[in-house]
Write a structure and sequence with these properties.
Blueprint lengths: L1 H7 L1 H20 L16 H4 L1 E8 L15 E4 L4 E13 L1 E21 L4 E7 L6 E6 L4 E6 L8 E8 L1
Amino acid sequence: MLPHLAKRSPLKFQMIAFPLLAMLLSSCLWQFDPYAGLCVTQEPAPKDVIGVYILSKQTLTSEGADAIQDIGATIKINDDGTYVVTNFPLWQEIGKYKLDKSLSDAGFWKISIVGGNTNESHWGIRFSNNQILQACLTDDGDSSGLLFTYGDPDSGDVMIFKKTGD
C-alpha cells in the first residue's frame, strides 16, 4: 500500500512514513531500566553483603508500600554462605501483578553477575531457591539493598529490600 502511495503522491507518503518511522525508532531507542543505575557494577566483598534486609518498596501494584506494609518480609544473608528468608512475597501475573502468597525458606547464596548492559555488569546475589532466584545488589550512597526485577526491566516492576545491619 505505501509503495503505491509513494508513486502517486510523494508528499502523502512522507506525511505517513516519517511519523511511523519516528514512532518505531523511539519505542526501541529510548527504553531503559529505571532502576539499573542503583545496581552495583564492581564485585563486592562477601563481608559487604552480610546482613539483614527488609522489604521497603514495591512497584508491582498501584498500592505501593500499602500492599507490603504488614508483610514483614526479611532476608538474612549469613557469612557462612546461607540465607534465611521470611515472608518473601510471591507475585502472580495475570495481566497485572497480584500478591499470591509469601515464602519462608533457607538455603545457600553466592555473589554473581546477575545482569547488566553493554557497558557494565551488574553484581548481585543468586539464591538456591528457584522462586527467589537472584537480586541485584544496590548502593545509592546512603544505603545498600537488594533489587528484585519482575518481567521486562524497562517496565520498572521491582521489589526493593534495604539493608538494616549485620
